[in-house]
Q: What sequence folds into this?
């Protein structure tokens, strides 16, 4: 257990959002899943698979001083292009695809937290330009999949900058501690094939 010192008392949330059922829309979830699988973080850092929870995420944002978000973002760039956006620039970018009019975009989640006066002070969006958002049940495309490791490296640099460095795990993460289970983790999901 780590004792918090003045240097690392920032409460940090590392969040992956997206929908794994729509190919590259699952980038954020897969990135945070891999990050959690390969890295241990100090006690002041929370790692969360936000999936498509929308406004339910506001409570988590309210408790964070700093926020890192992994997401598929339509920047209008070449597929697989990774881009880091910081602080005031973050609300300008939203997820690549809303599945229905009822789904809340992350921009709305940030706005709600801001209205409550509880938005994280420091924001970082690590977005990847998707190639395919229409392949229901399909895997991440190759250009997007190859950006997971570089996205995690960016997150590690941000955590170190904020005084809470991540450390690569030397012992594999026990299955019971994984973010995703029940065959929806990346390896099992893609090995199983399309959902019926």
A:
């Amino acid at each position: 257990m780590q004792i918090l010192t003045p240097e690392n008392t920032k409460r940090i949330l590392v969040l992956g959002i997206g929908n794994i059922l729509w190919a590259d829309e699952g980038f954020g979830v897969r990135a945070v899943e891999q990050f959690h699988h390969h890295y241990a973080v100090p006690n002041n850092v929370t790692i969360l698979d936000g999936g498509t929870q929308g406004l339910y995420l506001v409570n988590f944002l309210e408790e964070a001083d700093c926020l890192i978000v992994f997401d598929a973002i339509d920047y209008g760039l070449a597929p697989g292009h990774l881009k880091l956006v910081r602080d005031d620039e973050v609300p300008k970018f939203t997820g690549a695809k809303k599945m229905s009019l009822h789904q809340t975009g992350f921009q709305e989640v940030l706005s709600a937290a801001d209205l409550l006066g509880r938005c994280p002070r420091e924001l970082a969006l690590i977005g990847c330009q998707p190639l395919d958002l229409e392949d229901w049940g399909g895997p991440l495309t190759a250009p997007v999949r190859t950006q997971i490791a570089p996205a995690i490296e960016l997150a590690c640099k941000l955590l170190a900058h904020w005084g809470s460095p991540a450390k690569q795990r030397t012992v594999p993460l026990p299955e019971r501690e994984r973010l995703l289970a029940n065959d929806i983790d990346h390896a099992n999901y893609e090995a199983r094939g399309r959902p019926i």
Remarks:
- The domain at 10-191 is CATH 3.40.50.1450 (Rossmann fold).
- Confidence is low (pLDDT under 50) at residues 1-5, 99-103.
